[in-house]
Amino acid sequence: MKENIIFHIDVNNAFLSWTAVKLLKEGYNKDIRNIPSIIGGDEESRHGIVLAKSPVAKKYGIKTAETIYSAKKKCKDIKIFPPEPDYYKEISNSFMNYLSKYTPNIEQLSIDECFMDMSHSSYLYDDLIFLAYQIKEEVKEKFGFTVNIGISTSKVLAKMASDMEKPNKVHTLFLEEIEKKMWNLPINELYMSGKSASLKLESIGIHTIGDLARSEKSTIEKLLGKHGAMLYDYSHGISNDIKSKYDSVEKSLSTSETFKEDIVEKNKLIQILYKQVDNLSKSLRKDKLYTYTIGISFKNSDFKTYSKQLTLDVPTNSIEEISKHIINIFNASWKNDPIRNMGIRFSNLTDKKSRQLSIFNEDRELKTEKLQETMDLINDKYGESIIRQANLFTSPVEKDNDN
DNA sequence: TCTGGGGTCCTAGGACCC
DNA sequence: TCTGGGGTCCTAGGACCC
Q1: Distance CA A255, CA A122 (A)
Q2: The one catalytic residue among A113, A165, A179, A257
């Protein structure tokens, strides 16, 4: 039997590279990959974090997800460019589409990375490494950005490999290489060993991936539970179970928004919830899905988060019904505190087949669904939601507005 | 002029059942 | 006065990823 061969392909500084390519195409005189630059959200609307950085910015110690405020302190000449999500999606799609010509077994892990299962390709082993170099060059030629390609026999090792030296590199990380190439890395560079797990591991003297690999699995499991057992296995290159977000059916849908200013008015919050229900339930209906569980989450001015959810007996995707529950959940959970960020989430999703219609309401429900479908169609055609439920326009009556 | 948004999975504790 | 044990479902919160 042939061994598994997995490629992990990762775009170098994806958002920044993609914006760089776009700017060059538009005639911009600089390649922003070669200057201290970042892609960052708008500070004014409190979206001020670093989404991607150039290698030069990295040299200043700027990290992804830190505040733009602090990035500016590290480098006062930093150039900041806004993210362009629609453009990124477009370029990601054509990139993935291009890669899929090499294998049908391609698994997109996020907007800028994927696994390619090359096990059943007709290429010979040595040719596969050559092929990786070829793909890397072709991508650069065709799209104008560079990638890293990691090659191994499992997803975890392929992912660890593509993360090694950047940019524009191909790395292998086969089992016999992990001791030399991976065990000397600090523990927080192991995939899925984040801040919390790494800190706990450090506390018992585990500083490198090798330290973890040489420890007792049972000790790690006691410390970190199931997650610990998984990390231990990862340190030995065992496991093939990174799950793909894009291929499988969605397990939950959510949306959330950070406000320009904290909101304390109940009516405003409720209006925002209605808007979120309108949008998110549309995705539900578009995918022909129904949700059992509906929830709201809050982040207040102190950055504390809390949430409340409700599971229904009969799943739904009706804007009317979801709105009704959302209001109840809101009333039962909002602590009257100033809210910085609020969002809703649908989970426990199901498709129509497994759904049980309650017998008595079946007729009415089907009619409502038909109506909703028609409304979605019209709204799709004319852009914005020109037809909406009446309750989206009228402010709910609130008598107790004093506390 | 601090700190996004969209996901997945796990855990601890409570309710409820037999 | 006593108060098992196994299972399922649900909730809230948190860790982790890009």
Answers
A1: 43
A2: A113
Q: Does any domain span residue A175?
A: no
What count of residues does chain A have?
403
Q: Is the C-beta of residue A226 closer than 7 Å to nucleic acid chain B?
A: yes
pLDDT in tens, A250-269: 899 999 999 999 999 999 99
> CA–C1' distance A67–C6 (Å)?
49
By three-state DSSP, how is residue A379 classified? helix
CB A63 within 7 Å, strand B: no
* Domain limits for position A196: 183-235
Specify whether A120 is located in the same domain as A223: no
Task: Tell whether the model's pLDDT for residue A363 goes beyond 90.
Answer: no
Domain match, A221 and A267 both: no
What is A284-302 written as a DSSP string?
Answer: HHHTTEEEEEEEEEEEETT
pLDDT for residue A226: 93
Q: Is the pLDDT of residue A365 over 90?
A: no
Which of strand C's nucleotides are less than 7 A from any protein C-beta?
Answer: 9-18
Q: What is the pLDDT of residues A185-219, one digit of tens each?
A: 999 999 999 999 999 999 999 999 999 999 999 99
Residues A227 and A277 in one domain: no
Q: What is the pTM of this model?
A: 0.89
User: In this structure, is residue A165 part of a structural domain?
Assistant: no
How many angstroms separate the CA atoms of A157 and A173, rounded? 6
For residue A259, the tally of other CB atoms under 10 A from its CB is: 17
Q: Is residue A163 part of a domain?
A: no
Q: Are residues A107 and A198 in the same domain?
A: no
Q: CB of residue A350 closer than 7 A to nucleic acid strand C?
A: no
Phi, psi for residue A349 in degrees, rounded to 5: -80, 155
The tokens 């909703």 sit on which residue? A372
CATH number, domain of A229, equals 1.10.150.20
pLDDT digits (tens, 9 = 90+) for A31-41: 999 999 999 99
A113 is a catalytic site residue: yes
CA atom of A345 to C1′ atom of C12, Å: 14
Task: Write down which residues 294-313 in A have CB closer than 7 A to strand B.
Answer: 303
Q: Which CATH number does the domain housing residue A110 bear?
A: 3.30.70.270
Percent share of chain A, pLDDT over 70: 88
